[in-house]
Amino acid sequence: MENIRTDLAIEAHEMCSKKKAEETEVGGVLVTEDKRDGVFVTVIDIKSIEGEKELGKPMGKYITIEAPDIKFSDDALENTAKIIAEQIREICHVTESTKTLVVGLGNDMITPDALGPKVVSQLMVTNHIKTYMSELLDESYSSVCAIVPGVLGTTGIETTDIIKGVADKIKPEIVICVDALATRSVNRISTTVQISDTGISPGSGVENKREEISEKSIGAKVISIGVPTVVDAATIASDSIDAVIESSEELKVLCKENERRNIIKKALLGSEKNMMVTPKDIDLVIRRAAKVVADGINLALHNSVSF
Q1: Of 2, 19, 25, 88, which has the most beta carbons under 10 Å away?
Q2: 15-40 average pLDDT score
Q3: What are the backbone dihedrals phi and psi of residue 182, each rounded to the nearest 5 degrees, phi first?
């Protein structure tokens, strides 16, 4: 499969399917789709080593929730939060006795990378109350604790080591990691949420891959939740050129897809032009994305929470 600059399994599947000239059939991968209240839910289940190789993603379930109106519509935000909660519950099977550690990955000093810390700031954290003042909460609240471990450049410590240290001490059944993602589609920035049960490799979408955070490395079930906030500049350039070429039959003949992508990649690779791009309204994007993810987690972990 072509080396795709994306964290989204749905995009890896789309590119692989296009390469194979198929709609959805990729070996070892099961895809189901649903739509309700203007929100599209696609579940990609990678079931084999063949599927891993085809998509370049570990075996497991990847749930993509696409809500085109989430950026401006409060109704869309509420509907999406409820769907996020449903999907988390289905994967995690949360009960009142479940202890969950939520990890806000990223750097809150860099807006496109601040999703994780912003989500944590809006969570209903209850572990300390259930531990020391349990009479204040009924059984509809589960035990939730949260950390923002920062990034290697500011702490000097691998994020995985920090999370494992905390997890070893408090022993959560579930670890939910929230992070900003990279996409290959401008249209998916801030309108898409990906939930996965395979863990996460922070920074992989922007070629700054750190140690993976997974059940194997942490010792607890790891769920990752992410929203795309950046796109590769080379992808934008390629898509723009594609649009021009598609408008001309003569250019289609002269410019084969693989050739033009290689030309673009060589022109931008290793230069100051090879950038990750974020929208000009990134402050709004992060604020809305953090709210929908935080609301979804709160709804999933506490039965008494409602809008």
Answers
A1: 88
A2: 75
A3: -105, 145
- Residue 155 within any structural domain of the chain: yes
- Whether 74 is in a domain gets the answer yes
User: Which CATH number belongs to the domain containing residue 110 in this structure?
Assistant: 3.40.50.1450
The residue among 9, 59, 33, 34 whose CA lies nearest residue 184 is 9
Quick check: 144 and 123 in contact, CB under 8 A? yes
Helices (H), ranges, 140-232: 152-155, 159-170, 215-218
pLDDT of residue 218: 94
Model confidence pLDDT, tens digit, residues 48-79: 888 888 888 889 999 999 999 998 899 999 99
Residues 6+ apart with CB under 8 A from 127: 99, 143, 144, 145, 170
CA 197 to chain centre: 11
Count of the separate structural domains present in the chain = 1
pLDDT in tens, 154-213: 999 999 999 999 999 999 999 999 999 999 888 899 899 999 999 887 655 445 556 889
How far apart CA 89 and CA 93 sit, in angstroms, is 5
Is residue 4 in a domain?
no
pTM: 0.85
Using CB atoms within 10 A of its CB, is residue 183 exposed (0-12), middle (13-18) or buried (19+)?
buried
Q: Which domain holds residue 50?
A: 9-301
Cα dist from 156 to 72, 201, 209, whole Å: 38, 17, 15
